[in-house]
Design a protein that fits this description.
By secondary structure, this protein is an alpha/beta fold. It has one domain: Glycosidases (TIM Barrel). Helix content is about 30%, strand content about 15%. The longest helix has 20 residues.
Length: about 400
Amino acid sequence: MGMLICVSSCEDESSVFSIPIQEKPKIKEVRKSEGLLSGVPILEGNSDPDLVSGLRSKWVSNGPGLINSIAPYYVQNGGEVADLVFMAEKAGANLLTLNLEPTSSFLAKGRAIYSLDFLIEQENELTQAAIAKKDFTHEQRNLVLLDFLKKVAATETDIKFNIHQELWFEKASSTLTENFISEMSRFINLCIFSGVDDLIKGIRLGENNQFNQEEILKFALRVSAEINKRTGNWLQKKEFWMGGGGSGGAFFKGIATSSQSEEFFKKMSEEVGAFAFTYKHHQQIILNGMDCQMGCLMEKLDFDRNNYEDVRAFIEEELGFRELINFIKASRDDFPLHANVVFIGDGNDALEQMTDVHEKAVQDLLKEAGDGFQGNLGMNVISKLDLPEVSVYDLESKLRFETQQKWINWPE
């Protein structure tokens, strides 16, 4: 018995081949001590997003549009895969991210503006300089990530991975959305064919610069349905996380009132094993035509950036977080695996980059919201050279106890 797998799209039979289905062992879940809802089924290899304690295992930016690795930079810069996995497990993580970084032919001004033709890429030698400029092909990138996952599999770890990509899209029906679907589908199929897809917990769209909540909901539904068509319904036993709106991921105003809102969670539950929106407290934000740091934007709208009540009101009212809470709560009982919000951190992907006032406001909102708002992917596993405070480990790979405790107990 087998299933049909599409390499890119299923429009012609030449792009389809059969892969035998193999029984896979049950995946041991690493969970927090409390929070599992009674009677809620947990899919094989898939836990409630509300129970995620995740870490970023990303590359490091060397400037606008520049990166220093394809695989997690700790590994590509000489570290051992087994050490990275061990450190994550020791810290208490049950999830790591893996970036499916767009290539240079897909980029404009450092954002994922895709080429219309996958076949015109020039394969260059995969040097450090080429990596920094993202001057590599999809195949080169995918093989680097596949090699990383094979090394992870050899460690027999319980850690799973969330495949992440950013995309600034205008319409859910756009060519950009189609290319995101193709990118994810091709990598998923490669992992299925190579026998490492059980390491992948799901996929995530990160920053998207989209303020229209109807387009965000349409995007999530289209992406999940199309990826299922091209991967043998792979997402039906996996997770899909959709980034919040705005330039960073904190904008949700209008999410409960679009034409897609009423049936959204029902439709999503038919496509994916679990779903979550992600909240990222990004400092750079564009709102009402104003583009500046969150603090200056607050002041332009007569909110005091240093006042707890003002910060909280700004997040709830201007960014629509109160509407998001109500939207989730209205469907949480019926769809506990799909009505979720996962905290991603701030603009630098770490809890400790927010000011104390902003951090307390976000923390209190998530804590008060309760079930459905407890998942956390807000810290890096290993720090950037000039930002040692954003990770649970220092540069010598020593566990930073206070940061680790703060991260794993978030939002308490």
